[in-house]
TrEMBL record, chain A:
Pfam families, alphabetized: ABC_tran (PF00005)
Keywords tagged on the record: ATP-binding, Ion transport, Nucleotide-binding, Transport, Zinc, Zinc transport
One GO BP: zinc ion transport
Family: Belongs to the ABC transporter superfamily.
Organism lineage: Bacteria, Pseudomonadati, Pseudomonadota, Alphaproteobacteria, Acetobacterales
Organism field: Caldovatus sediminis
Entry keyword annotation includes Zinc: yes
Statement: the UniProt record of this protein carries the keyword Iron-sulfur: no
InterPro entries: AAA+_ATPase, ABC_transporter-like_ATP-bd, ABC_transporter-like_CS, Metal_Ion_Import_ABC, P-loop_NTPase
Gene Ontology molecular functions: ATP binding; ATP hydrolysis activity
Domain (ABC transporter): residue spans on this chain: 8-234
UniProt name for this protein: ABC transporter
TrEMBL record, chain B:
UniProt name for this protein: Zinc ABC transporter permease
Record keywords: Membrane, Transmembrane, Transmembrane helix, Transport
UniProt membrane topology term: Multi-pass membrane protein
Transmembrane segments: 21-37, 43-62, 74-93, 113-132, 153-171, 201-222, 228-247
Location relative to the cell: Cell membrane; Membrane
Single GO biological process annotation from the record: transmembrane transport
Highest taxon of the lineage: Bacteria
Length: 251, 262
């Protein structure tokens, strides 16, 4: 990476949905250039954490410390997008140029060619004019990766990047992730496949609303930690009172 | 008219109901402005614009804040707005003809009103051309738009203002109840003629222009109110599109053709 990759620091971060904490008092840091998997049961607050880092969800308490000008590339969960939207593949990818060209300026030919190259890099050469409605789930995911490639952000957040894609697509996309890691970008990915995490991701954050473990993947994913995560995620107090932990920290 | 391209975006955002709500929302604004300032066109416009925006933005905020479904909030608001509008107009006992407000009278449009409409159409088309990229991005992937700092909310608000402006421009000719028809029906019909957003916009504008002309002729010769006549023709165009349109039309689906080789 030509530009410096900033560090992401979380300080006592609590993010809520309707006062229920989805991420609860999380403190820690993502080192520049680190490759971290965020793992945890459904409803553990993984997506919420990514959205908070991307600035899409305001924390209830605590904060995400990140330079204001830091650019973040976000791969949303695929289900969040309307795949029947009448738009061509190349146009989706070109939205990755937004930070470079903004809302109004026309796209120079060189950048247009880079969009085509990005498509080719994810195995979608020749798909420029195809409407996204005609793509398979895997091809659509490839197109979104191409958009990220073009965005060229120092920090990349991936929300379940390999869900609903076949093994071959996952392998191709994983190669892109490795390339980002090799270029020194910070990559944070929400994942469910623990074998994949053990194989490819040096760092892991195990989350179950509460942080269970955060560190080298082998230790974080120990059997004891995984059991604790499951128990925490299933605990749901109907009549939970207000949390006082923040006060204790402040005192 | 510049309404149909807006209709295409409304449809893509799954906000078809919003235009309807706005059309009803402008009614109490117009009525209130009329009670306060009398029959002055700028006052009526300002009242309508503010009321329309308030209803549309209010519905979105209400559904987000209460966790309810947006369509329920919209339906509630537009029924209240319609009732309030009719009640306010009735206070002054027929000083303004209610039927004309609701259903319009094209042949009663005078020169200033015509200029206003042309102005609105020009402004809308320019604004759409100008803000095309942010609008499409906001429609397709609002989270991404926010993550790259595209100020989605701002564009969204500007877009809603355009819709309100167009509903207002159309209401004199078509009436508040019918104005939305000419905005949405061509847009829904256009879906069956084009695969891209751009193509849909052109198709919608074409359908709307044709329907307006045919509807006016029909209204003149058969002595029908202009608003319903135009909207009926647009409805016919929609039906034809659903049946024969090349994209997802019913007929192309029924005709069995051999599947492609690969």
């Amino acid at each position: 990476m030509a530009t410096a990759v900033p560090e992401i620091r979380l300080r006592d971060l609590t993010v809520c949905h309707a006062r229920r904490p989805a991420v609860h008092h999380l403190t820690g840091r993502f080192a520049p250039g680190s490759l971290t998997a965020v793992v945890g049961p459904n409803g553990a607050g993984k997506t919420t954490l990514l959205r908070a880092i991307a600035g899409l969800h305001r924390p209830e308490e605590g904060r995400v410390e990140l330079p204001r000008e830091a650019r973040i590339g976000l791969l949303p969960q695929q289900a969040a997008l309307d795949r029947r939207f009448p738009i061509a593949c190349l146009d989706v990818v070109m939205f990755g140029l937004w930070p470079a060209v903004g809302p109004f300026r026309r796209v120079p030919r060189a950048l247009r060619e880079r969009a085509s190259e990005a498509l080719a890099a994810v195995g979608l050469a020749g798909f420029e004019a195809r409407p996204v409605g005609s793509l398979s789930a895997g091809q659509f995911q490839r197109a979104l990766f191409a958009r990220l490639l073009l965005e060229d952000a120092p920090i990349i957040l991936l929300d379940e990047p390999f869900n609903a894609v076949d093994a071959r697509t996952a392998a191709d996309l994983l190669r892109v992730v490795r390339r980002w890691h090799g270029e020194g970008r910070t990559v944070i990915a929400v994942l469910h496949d623990l074998d994949l995490v053990r194989r490819e991701f040096p760092e892991t954050l195990l989350l179950a609303r509460e942080p269970i473990a955060w560190g080298p993947t082998g230790e974080a994913l120990s059997a004891a930690n995984r059991l604790r995560a499951r128990m925490m995620a299933e605990a749901w107090a109907e009549e939970a009172g207000a949390c006082t932990r923040g006060d204790a920290v402040a005192a | 008219m510049a309404g149909p391209p807006l209709g295409v975006f409304l449809m893509l955002r799954r906000m078809s109901l919003t235009a309807d709500v706005m059309a009803h929302g402008v009614l109490p604004g117009i009525a209130a402005a009329f009670l306060v300032a009398g029959l002055s066109v700028p006052a009526l416009w300002l009242g309508g614009l503010l009321a329309g925006l308030a209803v549309a933005v209010g519905a979105g905020a209400l559904s987000r804040a209460t966790g309810g479904r947006e369509d329920a909030a919209l339906t509630g608001l537009y029924l209240v707005a319609l009732a309030l509008g009719v009640a306010l107009i009735s206070v002054r006992g027929g000083a303004m003809d209610l039927t004309h407000l609701l259903f319009g009278s094209v042949l009663g449009v005078d020169d200033p009103a015509l200029l206003l409409m042309a102005g609105t159409a020009t402004l809308t088309l320019l604004a759409l051309a100008f803000a095309w990229r942010p609008l499409v991005l906001e429609c397709f992937d609002p989270d991404f738009a926010r993550a790259v700092g595209a100020r989605g909310a701002l564009w969204h608000l500007a877009f809603l203002a355009l819709v309100a402006l167009n509903v207002l421009a159309a209401f004199q000719a078509l009436g508040t109840l019918m104005a939305v028809g000419l905005m949405m029906l061509p847009a829904v019909a256009a879906r069956h003629w084009a695969r891209g957003v751009g193509g849909m916009v052109y198709a919608a504008a074409g359908v709307a222009a044709t329907c307006s002309a045919l509807g006016l002729l029909l209204s003149y010769h058969l002595d029908l109110p202009s608003g319903p006549a135009i909207v009926l023709v647009a409805g016919l165009a929609w039906a034809v599109s659903v049946l024969f349109g090349p994209v997802d039309g019913l007929l192309p689906r029924l005709v069995r053709r051999p599947h492609l080789a690969g």
